[in-house]
Every structure is written in C-alpha cells, then in structure tokens.
UniProtKB/TrEMBL annotation:
Organism: Peptoniphilus lacrimalis 315-B
UniProt protein name: Luciferase family oxidoreductase, FMN-dependent, PP_0088 family
The keyword Membrane belongs to this UniProt entry's keyword annotation: no
Family membership: To bacterial alkanal monooxygenase alpha and beta chains.
Organism lineage: Bacteria, Bacillati, Bacillota, Tissierellia, Tissierellales
NCBIfam families referenced in this protein's UniProt entry, alphabetically: oxido_grp_1 (TIGR03558)
Pfam families documented for this protein: Bac_luciferase
Domain Luciferase-like: 20-257
GO molecular function (one): oxidoreductase activity, acting on paired donors, with incorporation or reduction of molecular oxygen
The EC number(s) this enzyme carries: 1.-.-.-
InterPro entries documented for this protein: Bact_Lucif_Oxidored (IPR050766), CmoO-like (IPR019949), Luciferase-like_dom (IPR011251), Luciferase-like_sf (IPR036661)
The organism's place on the tree of life at top rank: Bacteria
Enzyme class: oxidoreductase
Length: 329
C-alpha cells in the first residue's frame, strides 16, 4: 500500500507573525501524528521572508517536542551549507532525545539564491563530493565509527538517510549508495519517470535498504466542493507566480479569491508551462489524478505539500488526501 507523508516549507503569509507560521506547522504535524501519516519533513531554504524553515534542525526540535510517534525529518539538509561533523552531532543529539524518530534527507543544492549561497557555501559541491559526504555520514551513524580517531558525540545507529533530487544525477547517486530516493515532482515533473527508472535499475542493496524505495513529492490543494477547490486554485496560482518572481522579496499573499487580479496571458503561460506536479481540485478530481500518478510512477510513498493558509482548509486537504491514499491506492 502506498504510504503518505507531509512536506512543509513553513510558509509565512502577509499579516501573520513568525510564531503564527511555526504554530501552524506544529498543529499540522500533530494532526499528521494522530492520523498515522508516515513522516513529516521540513525543508531548508534561505533568504526568503515567505519560507521560514531556514534553521531546519531548530524547527524539527520544536515539532519533535510536541508530537509522539510520527517520524520527523529534514527534507533536507543541503550538505554544501554545513559542516558534516556538526550535521552528525546535531541530528544524533535529536535522535537520542526523541527515541529514534529522526529522518535525514540530504541534498546537494544550496536552497537559496546565488548571493546568499556565497555566504553559506564553503565551495562548489560536485556530485563526487556529495557522494563522499553521504558515505561519511553513513560511517558516523554506523558501528564502524569506532575506527575513527575523531567521532561525533552523542552517537547513534538509528538515523536513516535519504537522497533528495530534482534531476537524474541524484538518481544515480541514490541507486549506487543503496539509499531511499525522494524526488521533488513539484520542481521537475518531466524528469520523474526517468529518474525513478535510473534509480531502480542501478540500485545496489545496502545495510539500510534491501530494495529500491521511492518517495514522490507534489503539491496538493484539495477541497470538498468544486467552488472551494476553485478558490484554492486561484490562491495557489498567485503564490506560484510570486515564487516565480525571484526578485520579489515578500511574504506570501493572502488574497481573497474574489478580489484576485485577472491573470495576464503571460502569467497563464507561465503557470501552464512551469507549474510542477500538483493536484488542484475537488475530491473526485483528486482521486482520479492520484490514481493516474500512482499508475505512472509507482512511488512507494507520496509526500504532499500545500500552500493553503487557512488552517482548517489546510488540514482538510490532508484529511481528504489520506482517505484517498488509504482507500484507493
């Protein structure tokens, strides 16, 4: 059966405080915990007033402290931005504090713009360097760490690693390392099938994983009626255009759909040609789309994110999604 998880960027909307955004993220995590979602991941992005999960491990710690069973993870740690040794120390500390509930997703991108990357990056991070860094983390979290003169403390053996990707390069890496593979369908929808094919074909069993395991992330904005779904879609389009306009630095819009500006032909073209894998519609539409996605990509796990700002509607989006996945996939 397909598993279901949540990915959260911790979006902040105009008119709310930072604490409001963090508390919404926590409330959603508690909902996921009570309703048996597989895992709940936080992203790493920088220099964005609209996405405030930049100190990812701090937000993870906050959510771990107020949930009971669900796995909480980084989706992910952008390795070029961090000291590898400190990554091992911090996540081992979290894992010891919170009963082996930590996932560690690893990425090679900076998670930000070029100017900010210069402040974060130690140097250019090639695929080979990423592979070596991942192998070192595997070593830090294994019995073989005892062979090292310098060891990260506290120690742990229980943190599963995941390779994150938006291209086929990451598919080769995940397969060769024998790690689970999480692909961002909302970023590179045209490469999903090819990336999964490469990963499955090149997968080498490892101590962590005996057979390939794929996670597919996508955006969902689902409502119970066509009218409510249309309102969510209008809001989602405005946020998508805001994300596309990288020069605009502001919190996400909180628009009334009735007063939303009419889209220009250029904006409609941008949405049509650049929007990633997403489901925007009512329950029956969402069910049909998920069945198509499941049949085409055969992911072991769906990881959904959403930019719905009203909490009740956000929760209902995931409640509907959980019902579809549990009963139709």
């Amino acid at each position: 059966m397909t598993k279901l998880s949540i990915l959260n960027l911790v979006p902040k909307y105009i008119g709310e405080s930072y604490k409001d955004a963090y508390d919404r993220a926590l409330k959603l995590a508690q909902f996921a915990d009570k309703n048996n979602f597989q895992r709940y991941w936080l992203t790493e992005h920088h220099n964005s007033p609209a996405v405030i999960s930049s100190a990812t491990e701090v937000v993870i710690s906050y959510i771990l402290a107020h949930t009971k069973n669900i796995r909480i993870g980084a989706g992910g740690v952008m390795l070029p931005n961090h000291s590898l040794f400190q990554v091992a120390e911090r996540y081992a500390c979290l894992n010891n504090l919170y009963k082996d509930r930590i996932d560690l997703g690893l990425g090679r991108a900076p998670g930000t713009d070029k100017d900010t990357a210069r402040l974060l990056y130690k140097k250019n991070f090639s695929p080979r360097e990423f592979i070596n860094a991942t192998k070192m983390l595997k070593l830090y979290f294994s019995e073989d760490v005892e062979k090292l003169d310098v060891k990260p403390y506290p120690q742990t053996r229980e943190i599963p690693l995941y390779i994150l990707g938006t291209s086929t390069i990451s598919a080769h890496i995940a397969g060769k390392l024998g790690l689970p593979y999480a692909f961002a369908g909302q970023v590179s929808p045209d490469l999903i099938e090819k990336a999964f094919d490469i990963y499955r074909a090149e997968f080498i069993p490892s101590r962590q994983l005996e057979k390939p395991y794929t996670i597919l992330s996508l955006i969902t904005n689902i409502a119970r009626t066509k009218e409510d779904a249309k309102d969510l879609s209008i809001k989602a389009e405005q946020i998508f255009l805001q994300i596309m306009n990288v020069k605009e630095k502001s919190e996400f819009y909180n628009l009334d759909p009735e007063n939303a500006p009419e889209l220009t032909s250029i904006e409609r073209f941008l949405i049509k040609t650049n929007r990633g894998l997403s489901i925007n519609g009512d329950v029956e539409y969402a069910r049909k789309e998920l069945l198509k996605i499941n049949e085409k990509y055969k992911a072991d796990e769906i990881m959904a994110l959403s930019f719905i700002n009203e909490y009740e509607k956000l929760e209902d989006n995931f409640r509907i999604l959980k019902d579809i996945v549990d009963n139709s996939l």
